[in-house]
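Entry for 7TS complex. Fields follow.
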Amino acid sequence: MTALAQRSLSAPGLDVEKVRKDFPILGQEVRGKPLVYLDSAATSQKPRAVIDAVARYYLQDNANVHRGVHLLSERATKEYEGAREKVRRFINAARAEEIIFVRGTTEAINLVAQTYGRTRVRAGDEVLITEMEHHSDIVPWQLLCEEKGAVLRVAPIDDDGQLLVDELQRMLGPRTRLLALAHVSNTLGTINPARRIVEIAHRQGIPVLLDGAQAAPHFPIDVRALDCDFYAFSGHKLFGPTGIGVLYGRSELLEEMPPWQGGGDMISSVTFEKTTWNKLPHKFEAGTPDIAGAIGLGAAIDYVGALGFAAIAAHEHDLLTYATEAVREVPGLRLIGTAKEKASVLSFVLGDVHPHDVGTILDQEGIAIRTGHHCTQPLMRRLGVPATARASFAFYNLRSDVDALVAGLHKVQEIFR
Ligand code: 7TS
């Protein structure tokens, strides 16, 4: 089948060729070949609308927020707070003050560990995570547990990379202060049954943090339907700029939590004797925030909203199904992560070939994938592999990108035969 015929087979509802024109970066050649970008789980590409929104802010409106009485500051503040409202709607939070702008998922989780965690977790208490967590949802809890003499416990997965929910349930107990888990695994693509897990934890009064870094780009997030207590995600994986991300927290919890960083904007009044805190969300936004980043994230949310998650999900499902079938033809290829519910992530090992060699040879073909442990070293150990190669898809990918990947993998096979 020609590439053109295959392109026309993409799921209805999304004109991918048209969408790709919004991403100028995708039109280039690398190493003399058309770029095939299959690393969106690491960071996604940005549509022109996002780049323009950031440029427009700097060209027309740049000023600090919440400070000046002058018009530019007023405009910057309006746009920055407008972006917060867009995020609120995007995840269906009840209030804009529940949206804290941070640098990304990592900072969001550290914020919760250092504020909620440090006030609630004592010696002998437990924090529960899972075997599939990204280092960003392991290390902050390790630091906290070490400081407090608490215990970090880890819920197991099966060989397909699915969370053993019954086991997780058994591990929750009177000493569990928090459950923190990925909504979607970056290495395996597994979509965890977050709603069900939150319900199980809440039955015992245990709050839940969801790491939504790999979920927010793929399907609609509704924090009220999920009923989670915290939700974290990064702008740069959601077609927005780097340096901006979101922590959602239930307002009752955020109100109780002490501030994390001190400085400008998070105070109500300061004397050398005592400082009082600003109201939410500003209590958690010390210093000049990434104003342009927030505005860019707002533009990304608008962009994704205009495409619609129904069309995005249908297309990505088509890509994942097509790719899963296609790579089966590659001799010696073993998929890592075969959960029933998956986002568009395809991790694999190829016989004895080191994943870095796979990645390097594919790069010569213009194909960008990620290789390594994907910041999930404990998961690699659990699965008995030192590393994997990972192709991850976004709505701007085509079936012909999958064809290029498969052709590239055959080339790798030839070289290592
Ligand atoms: N949590 C998950 C599930 C992730 O996939 C990542 C980044 C993070 C947290 C950290 O996000 P950050 O924006 O704060 O860095 N994951 C990846 C990845 O899979 N490849 O590169 C980064």
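NOTE: The first helix runs from residue 3 to 8.
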